[in-house]
Design goal:
heterodimer, A: mainly alpha, ABC transporter involved in vitamin B12 uptake, BtuC, two-stranded antiparallel ribbon, globular, B: Rossmann fold, 3 domains, 6-stranded mixed β-sheet, 17 helices, 26% strand
Chain lengths: 335, 504
């Protein structure tokens, strides 16, 4: 009987933690269960949730992607620049002088400009994944360099200035509601579902688990590791680019300095969600729960009007506590 | 002999070199349908290189590979698998976090028309495959949760699912107990009957004579010869393997005097839930206590508990009459107990460190001038052991991973020899090392006992246990099933006790 309880804890401990946090939130603040707050919580979670999906792929495969925050910033400013009719040239300074929305002279019509930025994101992922795979450099280092480089590129692009004037259809991606559900949440959960199916029900997805569990073993089992090693970075950077576009819509401007440190939140969410940092073990479902747990912690502290820096302290402690608890549950199962 | 053998796979004049080493030099090798072809040779003889080439992992420098008489080039492990060659690797066979069924069908999972994996179908097919080899394994289990012996059976099932015509077993016995090995042999025999070609690699002569139809011997990358098993005897094979005559009973001449019975290590009522219980043992000074048992009988876990690597639930460890509190390997070493672990490569050595560093690590405290490490003392200390144990290494800075298994084991030994310890626990000291080195290790162990050290030696090789031990404890399912004096111990008794059949 006792053994059974341990199994339940190991398999569902994560959901239990989420549930406990919800209960605590409800008790602590009457505002928690209002539509506005829940919608806000879900919207906030959606952005880090999208990054965490990409991060799940990378970590499952046994790597890490530190560059996503920078890619968000770069995509945000790149998207705004395209809308202003400029591709690769650095913007002349005059354009920033006046405030308010400048006249847009987009280079590409609407769906294609978004697509272009997503492709640029994918390309960034392809390059970092390829370098890590081909030259056998640990992804920590490769993506650390990309994090620095791309942030530098993004900020140089507009001399550090935000660029205003984002058209409505994009704002809809960030603010829209469908049946009272925030649009970002629909995008987040929709992509989560797709990625869940990919990881669980396709040979390709299982291959990512295999390569993450042991590359040499996977190779000897007849897999060609290259695509499994590189694809996760493409997924991660493309999703980061998507988040960049959505953030532009949300803020009404392209801002090269946003999303600093978001990669760490994404990693934290993935790890809370039970994905092993050494690769080969984990799931998208876990990551969604991990993102919600992290979002809840912030949300309840905001409702309680705790100041930003004490919030950080509390966040650090709670993440470690959640992980320790989770490890305890899973260890019990092993015995 | 009664039928015309068809050659499934043939390699001709294969040569492969690495910088500075000629790993394979003009080697020929064939596998016929319905035969078990043993591949033997000391470590570094080129066996692994040959099977890696056949399995598509490495490319050859020159030579030909013929499959069913047609020349082929294996581009990758996948390509070789598609052409019907399956290699059952000993060291890196598995993906621990995936289920048994997924390991079997990796990248070939049954899918629906919409390319979705059909899990129920996959588990059903896996069940069927496992049934054909009578493996009692749930296909849903994570492979990492299975003991190595069962993982091996999963690999066999995988080979069957690939419809492999040629199946290569890379030293399966190194990780199997004798009962499990017998099962595997039955499976191999039935595979052979189906007309598949089997390549079987092993260090153990008994196995080669038991299962093999032919044997090919490699030495230093060169082909020594291929012989039909029925035409050669043990002596000839050993001579082929090492290139010189070896007296297998060497070391037997060293008599261990066991007159004064001074207990060195006593274990009383040691118990660890679900692993072992009620363990009572005494090891005397100058004695070798052999521990025999099947894989999973708790022998390794017992050794780990004695040195404090795992904590027992109850029980006492008494060293030279004094009760010890050993809660970590560090405590054990301080008190004079050391372990040479079963898994030499990951637990006994730092593969990416030099011979010198490995030997000196536990003794660094005494290799200092005042506060600072003295590299001249360290080098002197290490080179003394290299000479004394005849460790074959080009220099002290050689990484341990480049040494042969036998020399690696000597490095593990050297680590402890300079420390004035009282009790030595050896877990499978000669596993996976070649015939010549085995004898050297055994002689070293005997000499230690002669010097008055207390030795606990865990081994699955019955001849080794019988030859070396003064007394033998046999473990079965976490208990000591019997304690035998050397004189009364026989192969049959050990086997019977280890399977839980306590003879009267």
């Amino acid at each position: 009987m006792k053994l059974k309880a341990n199994h339940v804890l190991a398999d569902y401990g994560l959901y239990l933690i989420l549930l406990v946090l919800i209960v605590i939130s409800v008790i602590l603040s009457p505002l928690f269960f209002s539509y506005n707050n829940i919608a806000n919580l879900l919207t906030q979670s959606s952005f880090s949730g999208l990054l965490a999906i990409g991060m799940t792929f990378v970590i499952l495969m046994g790597g890490i992607d530190l560059s996503v925050g920078s890619v968000v910033g770069f995509a945000s400013i790149l998207y705004a620049t395209i809308l202003h009719g400029s591709f690769f040239t650095f913007m002349p300074e005059e354009i920033f002088i006046y405030s308010g929305a400048p006249k847009l002279t987009p280079i590409l019509p609407l769906p294609f400009d978004v697509l272009f930025v997503l492709l640029v994101g994918a390309f960034i992922g392809l390059i970092s994944g390829f370098i890590s795979y081909r030259f056998r450099i640990h992804s920590f280092i490769v993506t650390l360099c990309f994090m620095i480089f791309i942030r530098g590129l993004a900020v140089s692009y507009t001399h550090g200035q935000p660029l205003f004037g984002i058209p409505d259809p994009i704002s809809f991606l960030a603010y829209g509601l469908v049946a009272k559900v925030p649009m970002p949440t629909i995008i987040w959960l929709g992509i989560s579902l797709l990625c869940f199916l990919l990881l669980k029900f396709s040979r390709f997805g299982r291959g990512i688990y295999a390569v993450g569990g042991g590359e040499e073993a996977a190779r000897l089992s007849g897999l060609e590791p290259a695509k499994y090693r590189i694809f996760p970075y493409i997924a991660s950077a493309s999703l980061a680019a998507l988040v960049g576009i959505m953030m532009s819509g949300r803020m009404g401007c392209g801002d090269p300095k946003i999303a600093q440190g978001w990669e760490l939140d994404a990693i934290a969410a993935v790890v809370i969600g039970g994905t092993s940092l050494s690769g080969g073990k984990g799931s998208i479902g876990g990551t969604v729960v991990g993102v919600l747990i992290l979002g809840l912690i912030i949300n309840i502290m905001n409702l309680l009007e705790i100041e930003a820096y004490p919030q950080q302290m509390a966040k650090g402690i709670i993440i470690v506590a959640a992980l320790a608890l989770h490890a305890l549950f899973s260890r019990r199962r092993k015995r | 002999m009664n039928q015309q053998a068809t050659t499934l796979l043939e390699v001709r004049n294969i040569t492969k070199s690495y910088p500075g080493v000629l790993a394979l030099d003009n080697v020929d090798f064939q596998v016929n349908a319905g035969e078990v072809h043993c591949l033997a040779g000391e470590n570094g003889a080129g066996k692994s290189t040959l099977i890696e080439i056949i399995g598509g992992s490495y490319s050859k420098d020159s030579g030909k590979i013929l499959l069913h008489g047609k020349e082929v080039e294996f581009m990758s492990p996948r390509h070789a698998q598609e052409l019907g060659i399956a290699v059952l690797h000993q060291e890196i066979p598995i993906l621990p976090h995936l289920s048994v069924a997924e390991n079997i069908f990796l990248s070939r999972q049954p899918v629906s028309k919409t390319r979705f994996i059909r899990y129920s179908e996959m588990y059903r097919q896996a069940r069927r495959l496992l049934d054909t080899i009578q493996a009692d394994i749930d296909p849903h289990t994570l492979l990492g949760d299975l003991p190595i012996s069962k993982q091996q059976l999963v690999s066999v099932a995988k080979a069957l699912s690939l419809e492999a015509r040629v199946i290569i077993f890379d030293e399966p016995s190194a990780v199997l107990s004798s009962a499990e090995l017998k099962r595997l042999f039955d499976i191999i025999k039935s595979l052979k009957k189906e007309g598949r070609g089997i390549v079987y690699i092993s260090h153990r002569l008994e196995e080669i004579f038991e299962i093999g139809d032919r044997v090919t011997v490699l030495r230093n990358g060169k082909l020594v010869g291929t012989e039909a098993i029925e035409k050669i005897d043990r002596g000839t094979l050993i001579k082929m393997l090492v290139g010189r005559q070896i007296d297998e009973s060497a070391g037997a001449s060293i008599k261990v005097a066991q007159t004064k019975q001074v207990p060195a290590l006593e274990v009383r009522g040691l118990r660890r839930e679900g692993v072992f219980e009620d363990i009572n043992l005494t090891v005397y000074r100058g004695e070798i206590l052999g521990i025999y048992g099947l894989v999973g009988s708790g022998r390794t876990e017992l050794a780990r508990a004695i040195i404090g690597a795992d904590r027992p639930d109850t029980g006492e460890i008494i060293l030279e009459g004094e009760k010890m509190r050993i809660s970590s390997p560090r405590d054990a070493i301080r008190n004079g107990i050391c372990l040479s672990p079963e898994d030499r490569k990951s637990q006994g050595l730092f593969l990416e460190k030099s011979v010198q560093e490995n030997i000196c690590l536990p003794s660094l405290k005494s290799l200092r001038n005042m506060l600072f490490l003295s590299y001249s003392k360290i080098a002197k200390y290490a080179s003394a052991f290299v000479t004394r144990l005849r460790i074959a290494t080009p220099h002290l800075d050689q990484y341990v991973k480049y040494l042969s298994g036998g020399n690696q084991q000597k490095v593990v030994l050297a680590k402890w020899l300079g420390m004035d310890l009282k009790v030595f626990i050896f877990d499978e000291p000669t596993r996976g090392i070649d015939v010549g080195a085995k004898e050297e290790i055994r002689i070293l162990i005997k000499k230690l006992a002669q010097e008055g050290k207390a030795i606990v030696m865990i081994s699955s090789e019955i001849p080794e246990i019988l030859n070396l031990s003064n007394r033998i404890a046999v473990m079965h399912e976490g208990r000591i099933e019997g304690l035998l004096q050397r004189e009364e111990a026989t192969r049959e008794k050990l086997m019977a006790y280890s399977m839980g059949a306590k003879a009267q």
